[in-house]
Amino acid sequence: MTDTFELNGRQILLKASSDRVVAERVARHIQRRLDEDDWRPYTCKADAVQAWFRLGGIRAQVLRALNLV
Question: Which stretches within 1-69 are classed as H helix?
Fold first, then answer.
């Protein structure tokens, strides 16, 4: 089963129905970090985004949807 979730006008591919909840949670987490300018434990936004992007999967898709990579 492949489903999609739209975030910021971009489609995020979901491999399982439970991935929608994960994508929403990741998006909220990253948006909170952006709003609060809080990048701990990283030293800056660029380091945080790079580390999250390396994790791949839903996180990488959310970062792309938020135009961070």
Answer: 19-36, 45-55, 57-65
Whole-model pTM: value is 0.90
Domain segments of the chain as ranges: 3-65
The C-alpha atoms of residue 53 and residue 60 are separated, in whole angstroms, by 5
- pLDDT tens, residue by residue, 14-32: 999 899 999 999 999 999 9
CA angle 44, 45, 47 (to 5 degrees): 70
Cα-Cα-Cα-Cα dihedral sign, residues 18, 24, 27, 31: negative
Calpha distance 61→69 (Å, rounded): 10
